[in-house]
Specification:
globular; alpha/beta; ten-stranded mixed sheet; Rossmann fold
């Protein structure tokens, strides 16, 4: 990839930018300062090889920081910068997105002071991992030291250590807010911090974790090898998307989803197990229930031996209305390709959601938020890097669920809040349900809440308010979803 800043070891200079600002929240003016900076990784002989870039929002009228929480926030990928959580809901400035199914990603874009910002109760650190955002891989030969499940987690822990040293915040409560693969990062990092890494231990304990768009699983990477058919795991999401587009019932979204889940957990699971042995009236009953809960046609089910898969479901659920739905947010739609053969081949993996909001978030972050932070760099801001192609998926120290269990069991008082969009087809809420009943987590310290949104819960003003209110509640000791 082209470079627009010199990353030669003898010429690279770590960047640091500072600014001051204030925001009015609930009628009170909150002053804060910001620090945007490189945290550099060096070889044993002092050669810089990589940086994690961070953006810290620190309330400036607090004298005693020992009791003031610090939130470390990031997206996932792997390979994603913190752009979405930064400009979406965690920064002091954020976008106003409006309706989820925007007709275009073209301007005008609206950016406002964030009325839901958490800066009044916690300091906020947004994190761009190596090779993402303004984070940089300075030595291309060293990518394998950062691009992997456990490698990424240990690099992140090293960054957190350095940030706590640099800002003298070791005594502060510490919270992780990760989205998507960021949940994997949180679970693995917390697990390693509670035990040890491959070459050393870490003196960090986290008070709580917020998992947005969950990827913590008792199986392997991103829910692979979970011993239940994906059609059953994903069924609650299918029902939610059908509810949104086809309105099959007067029930609320959650009532319909939980009823569909109960059907999938027993009747559908058994029907798939029975296969061709399922005949007659019972088979007909199952087919009618599947059509009712998911919106797919009889023809679709007959062609696939009653098994629903996510890519073709997205083409089927609103087919009668002339459009397909998006993976990351089932509320977002696109017209079908023509002819049908093109739709079958190209449309299968065309996710309209990123086309609608990617440019919006990038424009807002680089055109509004970063200039206000005083950040001026020649390097490219990489919203999403292609490092996933080279990602080491080995989990030699335990799965994500095992590592989260390690952290919570070895750290009494540590809590976890799972937050997921009902319309999220990328990290289906069914994976949370399965994880929570199979991972051996201390459930008195775990909570879940679903939102009428997609993978990025913070699309829509009401969703932003609810998510921020719930995180605020969680940090102050509450358990959203249980209260």
């Amino acid at each position: 990839m082209y470079k627009t800043e010199c990353f030669k070891a003898d010429q690279f200079k770590p960047a640091r930018f500072e600014s001051e600002g204030s925001i009015k929240l609930d009628g009170k003016t909150i002053p804060y300062r910001t620090v945007s900076e490189d945290t550099v990784f060096y070889t044993s002989d002092g050669k810089p090889i990589a940086t994690i870039f961070s953006y810290s929002y620190i309330r400036s009228d607090v004298k005693d920081t020992a009791s003031r929480p610090v939130i470390f926030g990031y997206n996932g990928g792997p390979g994603s910068s913190s752009m979405y959580v930064h400009a979406g809901f965690l920064g002091t400035r954020r976008i106003v997105y409006g309706e989820p199914d925007r007709p275009t990603a073209l301007p005008p874009y609206e950016v406002i002071d964030n009325p839901n910002c958490l800066i009044d109760i916690a300091d906020i650190v947004l994190v761009d991992p190596v090779a993402t955002g303004y984070g940089a891989l300075l030595d291309d030969e060293k990518g394998k030291e950062f691009f992997g499940i456990e490698q990424d987690a240990e690099a992140f822990l090293t960054f957190v250590e350095q940030w706590l040293h640099r800002h003298n915040r070791w005594l502060s409560p510490k919270y992780l807010v990760g989205e998507s693969y960021g949940c994997t990062r949180s679970a693995i990092a917390a697990g390693i911090a509670s035990t040890r890494g491959k070459e050393r231990s870490y003196g960090i304990a986290f008070d709580g974790i917020v998992m947005i768009g969950n990827t913590v699983s008792v199986g392997k990477y991103f829910g692979r090898e979970v011993p239940v058919d994906s059609a059953v795991i994903c069924f609650p999401t299918y029902a939610a998307v059908n509810w949104y587009h086809n309105h099959p019932t007067d029930q609320t979204l959650e009532e319909f989803v939980y009823e569909a889940k109960a059907f999938a957990d027993k009747d559908y699971l058994l029907a798939l197990y029975q296969g061709d042995a399922l005949q007659g009236r019972e088979r007909e009953r199952i087919i009618k229930k599947l059509m009712y809960y998911t919106g797919v046609s009889r023809e679709y089910l007959e062609e696939r031996a009653l098994k629903i898969d996510s890519p073709t479901f997205r083409q089927e659920v609103a087919k009668a209305k002339g459009y397909a739905v998006a993976r990351f947010d089932g509320r977002i739609t696109r017209p079908f390709y023509t002819p049908q053969k093109v739709e079958e081949k190209v449309g299968l993996w065309d996710d309209a959601s990123s086309d609608r909001y990617g440019a919006y978030y990038y424009g807002a972050l680089t055109g509004d938020l970063l200039p206000r932070l005083g950040v001026k760099l020649d390097r490219q801001y990489v919203s999403s890097a292609g490092v996933i192609r080279d990602w080491n998926r080995e989990e030699t120290m335990g799965t994500t669920a095992e590592q989260l269990r390690n952290a919570m069991c070895r750290t009494p008082g540590m809590r976890t809040f799972f937050a997921n969009g009902w319309f999220d087809g990328a990290t289906d809420c069914g994976h949370i349900f399965y994880t929570l009943t199979h991972a051996g987590l201390p459930m008195d310290r775990v909570t879940f809440k679903g939102y009428p949104s997609g993978h990025m819960i913070y699309i829509g003003e009401e969703n932003i308010k609810n998510l921020c209110d719930d995180i605020r509640c969680f940090i102050q000791g509450g358990m959203p979803g249980k209260e």
